[in-house]
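Morning. Coffee machine broken again, so started the prediction first thing and wrote up yesterday's gels while waiting. Chain of 363 residues, entered below exactly as on the submission form.
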Amino acid sequence: MAESHSYPDLTTPEGTLRYLSQTPFAASKVIPFPEGVSNYTYRIILKEPYSGESVVGRKAYPGLIHTMVLKHVEAHAQNSTFPLHVERQEYEALAFIRVPEITLPLPPGISLPTLYHEDRQNRVVIISDYGEESRTLKSLLRTAPPSIAVSRTIGHSLGTFLARLHTASLTCDSSSQSPGIKLKSEFSSNQQARDISATITYGRLVETLAPSPEARVLLTPPLDLPPKQLAAVASVAKEMQERIKTSDDVLTMGDFWPGNMLVTLGPDRDASDGVHVGVVDWELAKPGLAGLDVGQFLAEMVQMRTFYPSSEVSVDHIVSTFAEAYRNELTRQVVMEGVEYIVHMNDKDEEWLRTSVVGGLVG
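Came back before lunch.
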């Protein structure tokens, strides 16, 4: 049985306005976002600038916040009967609060939305707005590919951020109690996120390449793959689905693609100064494979370059700096871990060493 709303219907702008009128976020206007299929998402124009605090107690800049974003979830995708757990929003809210803590210091020019309000009863979060001038990286590359300087800044920021997320939550040994690994464990129950990722990446791969008569065909005529090749694809797909559903390697963003990256350019649109990227939509965050986040981003970027040739130069610079920054950050983290071991060994800190990966060697 569907849950009843204690407030007006939040699937409409009118109902959302009535809901907001009973909160500190009373709005004069509610504007639906055109993109997105999972949630009901609105830009809210506040009647009065917000000057309260975020959920974690950060004071808002007085008089500067005139707009926010409201997200409401139902037990299905927007305009669809496809079932989705409403708890997905709780995981996203958790990410907004805790992911910045384990990726500090955040790379310059990158952030997650700030959470200002969470209403679990009515399945609402209210978060910071990146503004009407912001555009998804996907939209930017399709319609106005950024300059080389801007592209390299975007790639470097994203690569550094993602590497910090992954390394902060990397499981080296079962006894580790780092904040990143503790946070990863809090996402371990997000099983639907695992199932969705497994399905959209590998679950439909064989059906796409060798569709049944009643299936929607991607290519006309379909590819005529030799049975041996199709069997190899099916084997890889089965193995990868299982790994996605069970891996505990790192905390993954889960949907790391250009449509979830909001880019705001500076006053000089061709200069790197003032460029900011907001990484949004964290409902699929979960323990998983680092390569899935990296691979999804790179695959999407190659696709942009293929279907939108005007984006080729921008994509090439984003991809090269992303890969370089990701690799450099991993190296930096490995060196820092090595220094930590040297310091604890020098201090003869046997208690710390016993909980480390070399614990079995400590007498």
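Confidence is low (pLDDT under 50) at residues 1-5. Going to sketch it on the whiteboard this afternoon.
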